[in-house]
Amino acid sequence: MTQIDVTSNAEVAPPIAMLQMISGFWVSQAIYIAAKLGIADYLQEQPKTVEELAAITETHPPSLYRLLRSLASVGIFAEDENRRFALTPLAATLQTDTPGSLRFFAISELGQVHYLGWGNLLHSVKTGEIAFDNVAGMNIWDYYAQNAEAGKLFDRSMVNVTATVLEAIINNYDFSSFNTVVDVGGGQGSLITTILKANLKLKGILFDVPNVIENAKPRLQKESYAERCTTIAGNFFESVPSGGDAYLLKFIIHDWDDEKSLLILKNCHQAMPEDGKLLLFEQVITAGNNLSSSFGKLMDLNMLVMTGGCERTEAEYRSLLAAAGFKLTRIVPTSLAINVIEAVKL
């Protein structure tokens, strides 16, 4: 039987590589605590001793030291001979308001909400059902609606993720030929506002559920492009706004199974003009065992556990779009784990 090497370093013995993977759970939980405590923010100006950090965060100094020492061992923070800790490039991603920040994504993904789902992964594997729903007694979107703080944290985590991919999207896809873009399920508006900033003649419509739109309005009203961006509240399973010649769906379709995805896509089809374009911003799963494709495949597992959605291959996107009345015209890759999937009406 042929063995396939899927390790990044062929010199690492399989038991050691497996131990590193198993302990990844420990690393992720240490990252969660550091993000939750805001450690990286307190190191922005200069290194600090563990005693200083413990006083700021109201934690137990010896235990905090053990946490930070562990993180420093994998490149997150750096410890000097005086037990002072400093930022590293990895640690900088846990700051609150810096380019490339993933602080709130770390808190959201590694916190108790996702624990409910991932702790019940076996249920999904055995039944194909959503692990989170089985434990919580409701779907994740209802949970966020009923738990405002968790919902706000999720929104901020999506702002983090969007910020990391915006430059890649803008640099690889030309929006200048459009007149009005409709951001369907656009959350806090990070994507559409970035597009409006880069295309001064463009108008936009931000569309999401009522509570998300209400949270987004104050942020949008402070910006110079506010007069070019309309906000509309609604439910994309029922309808989406008309009036655009480009309809954007960023990390939306992967949240849902084919049946629910078709509802969203068909509503976009109905709202769009004949010469309009549909743009999906999603990962596209590729074949093979290479590590470069692992994030998308692990995210696919996250969708199974948390939402019942999935990451899809190119063939699966073509089939799904065709069922909704679209033709996939091209897939534009970017420098990050996101593609622009362009489609037009059949």
Structure description:
The chain is an alpha/beta fold. The protein has helices at 14-22, 24-37, 39-42, 50-57, 61-73, 89-92, 103-110, 112-118, 121-127, 131-136, 140-146, 148-172, 190-198, 210-221, 258-271, 294-306, 314-323, and strands at 48-49, 78-79, 84-86, 180-184, 203-208, 229-233, 246-250, 277-282, 284-285, 312-313, 326-333, 339-345. The protein has a 7-stranded mixed β-sheet with strand order 6-5-4-7-8-12-11, sandwiched between helices. Strands 1-3-2 form a 3-stranded antiparallel β-sheet. Strands 9-10 form a two-stranded parallel sheet. Helix 12 (148-172) packs parallel to helix 13. It is globular, with a radius of gyration of 22 Å.
Beta-strand segment tally: 12
Beta-strand share of residues: 15-25%
Q: State the distance separating the first and last CA atoms.
A: 46 Å
- State the secondary-structure class: alpha/beta
The biggest sheet amounts to:
7 strands, mixed
Helix content: 40-55%
Biggest sheet: strand arrangement: 6-5-4-7-8-12-11
Low-pLDDT stretches are 1-8
Average predicted confidence as pLDDT: 92
Order of helices and strands: HHHEHHEEHHHHHHHEHEHEEHEEHEHEE
Oligomer: single chain
Rg, Cα atoms, Å:
22 Å
Shape: globular
State the helix count.
Answer: 17
